[in-house]
Amino acid sequence: MKKPIVSVARHKDISSAVNFCLDQIEMPELTGKTVLLKPNVGREEDPRLGINTNPEVVEAVFKYLKENYKAKFLIGDSPIINTDTRIAFEQSGFSKLLKSDRIEFLDLDDRPPIELNIPQGRILKKIKVTGYWNDIDYIISIPVLKMHMHCGASLSFKNLKGLIYKRNKIHLHHFQAPDIIENLKRSSQKVKELDVAIADLSYIFKPDLVVIDASYALEGMGPSSGTCVKLDTIIASSNFLAADIIALAITQPDWSLKDVPHLKLISELLPNAPKSREDIKIIPGSLKQFIKPLEPPPTSINIKYKNVNLIDVESCSACLSTIFNLLKHNKDFIDKHFTAEKPLNLAIGKGITQSDLYSDTFLIGNCTYEHHENGLFIKGCTPVESTILKIIKEHLKIK
After folding, report:
1. Is 275 within the bounds of a domain?
2. Is residue 296 part of a domain?
3. Residue 179 domain-assigned?
4. Which of 73, 244, 257, 395 gets the highest tally of CB atoms within 10 A of its CB?
5. Which of 165, 181, 178 is nearest to 77 (CA)?
6. Is the pLDDT of residue 352 over 80?
7. Who has greater pLDDT, 203 or 328?
8. Is residue 133 part of a domain?
9. Between the CA atoms of 176, 162, 325 and 87, what dihedral angle is there, to the nearest 10 degrees?
10. In this predicted structure, which of 19-23, 46-50, 319-323 has the lowest mean pLDDT?
């Protein structure tokens, strides 16, 4: 079988890196089509933090495409709950691009959703996706390269979760399928229900072109609480799985697909799918000059504050990221009102039990509702940082 091509470039001028990469690969024919540029803009964050896609990369991709194809171009995403999509794009540096009369901005949650069936799915049998689904001919995934505390890494395929309508993304975190997981663990010890659900999406989601933004990557506690690393690197391919494999080969050279279980599952589902870098043609021929190992996501989540006790059992990344940001942004307040002897007790995750809890534990998020009578319940999926802080202050009787 013909090997898929993945091109890699490193350049301080990121548009030069984008142009080089796109020149090397077999591009889909976009003329006359409606093309969605799908960056990762899931949060209201400043650009170049490795959390959202660098707008310079998206601008360079758009410029390349509009100069080569007469297509209708769209750009959009569906961010995390309680986030305004346009504000997220503007806060993340996309204001210049959104002013272009050659590309149309979409809040992918604007229209009522379309429900797609996935009869082959092992866990995910149907999903509600953006109401714009039937208007889109081609999808170009432009993710930021980042480590992920629950999935190993977040790359071009996982970026397509943004096509899922609003809160339906959260459903992927809530499945329980112990028999399926027990069987899959024989070949991939790290696999979880979330990985299987993401892999099931590959029956309906397949980006036509991938441009992975590693200008700024996120190591460690991704998807939003890690450390930004400047790599000045772009990875492109018309084969999303090949691109994701090469992104891992550059940043986690000791890993295999077993370390990112949803990608391993996809490689087993798709016919003639690449399984490793040996199945891929790389331009240029060697990756040696590009390899930059990143700190992997932690295998266990530990809070370093002596006056905070976090009880985390099977939480999703949204809740966990919210807690980390709450602690990071309010350390002075926490140090003033809580001690090692009387800590701030927080509980998150669908797997907590009554025996895990203290009487004064703040139960964060709807997954903890079952135990609301045994603590101080804060509703939401996920409750925002300011709401959690407000309720903690009310409990302490602080104005």
Report:
1. yes
2. no
3. yes
4. 244
5. 165
6. yes
7. 203
8. yes
9. -150
10. 319-323
The pTM (predicted TM-score) of the whole model is 0.88
Bond from prior residue into 79 cis (ω within 30 degrees of 0): no
Which of 263, 290, 317 is the C-terminal boundary of a domain?
Answer: 290
Q: Is the pLDDT of residue 209 over 70?
A: yes
Q: Which domain holds residue 280?
A: 5-290
Measured on CA atoms in the order 362, 365, 368, 370, is the torsion positive or negative?
positive
Instruction: Report how far apart, in Å, the C-alpha atoms of 275 and of each of 21, 72, 249, 270, 291 are.
Output: 22, 34, 12, 11, 19
Encoding tokens for residue 203?
A: 């029956």
Residues 211, 320: one domain?
no
The pair of structure tokens assigned to 394 is 């009310």
Band the pLDDT of 33: cuts 50, 70, 90. Answer: very high
Tokens of 318: 């949204």
Select from 224, 256, 290 the last residue of a domain: 290
- The answer to whether 161 and 202 have CB atoms below 8 angstroms apart is no
**pLDDT tens track for 157-179:** 999 999 999 989 988 888 889 99
CATH code where residue 89 lies: 3.40.50
Do 383 and 367 form a contact (C-beta atoms < 8 A)?
no
How would DSSP label each residue in 326-370? HHHHTHHHHHHH--SSS-EEEEESTT--GGG--TT-EEESGGGGG
pLDDT at 49 over 90: yes
Asked if the model's pLDDT at residue 146 lies above 80, the reply is: yes
For residues 25 and 117, state if they share a domain: yes
Residues 363 and 284 in one domain: no
CA 231 to chain centre: 19
Residue-level length of the chain: 399
DSSP letter for each residue of 130-159: -TTGGG-SEEEEEPEEEEETTTEEE-TTGG
Domain count, the chain: 2
